[in-house]
Amino acid sequence: xxxxxxxxxxxxxxxxxxxxxxxxxxxxxxxxxxxxxxxxxxxxxxxxxxxxxxxxxxxxxxxxxxxxxxxxxxxxxxxxxxxxxxxxxxxxxxxxxxxxxxxxxxxxxx
Amino acid sequence: xxxxxxxxxxxxxxxxxxxxxxxxxxxxxxxxxxxxxxxxxxxxxxxxxxxxxxxxxxxxxxxxxxxxxxxxxxxxxxxxxxxxxxxxxxxxxxxxxxxxxxxxxxxxxxxxxxx
Lengths: 110, 115
Description:
The complex is a heterodimer of chains A (110) and B (115). In chain A, 0% of the residues lie in helices and 56% in strands. Chain A is an all-beta fold and 110 residues long. In chain A, the strands form two sheets. In chain A, strands 2, 4, 5, 9, 10 and 11 form a six-stranded mixed beta sheet that branches. A five-stranded antiparallel beta sheet of chain A has the order 1-3-8-7-6, with no helix packed on it. Chains A and B meet through strand 4, strand 5 and strand 10 of A and strand 5 and strand 10 of B.
């Protein structure tokens, strides 16, 4: 994998559903993997910065896991709420640059 | 203060105009970044300043000229742009220099339209 890829591109869920999405990145020269949350008309905000293989981080209902050997990270949202609606971007820190994926756009319906 | 402030929020300019985008942070961060984002595409890195020195230029055309007057300010000077340069321009800062794993703090972006 040469680029940072995210799937799915978009996701519509009902309030209360749990959901997850994937970020794939080059496994060679790994340094760090970032997750950002970007609400419409606001600035992207960092959720997690992950560096260790097998790492799992949690912030409230949102958690993320990291597999550096196979080059993927999962973001999980438990019990989605309408305020979770946003675009979730992952970014691979590699060769001195932070390279972003295209994001997963999440919409949570009440 | 954990904000990165970008001005203007919206800018419309002709292809012969000269304008500037401005970015300011007061978090004591020593690395600052310009990203360009077009619709349905990922933010693309343009420039990185580390300790007020340009450390990365991603082969950006010379019609974009960055400037870092001091550690709190980052400008992007625009001249003779093309309509395809219309995009959202995001500024970000981070605590350390370019070779770090610290999170980026972003502004809300400047939406540029080139006529």
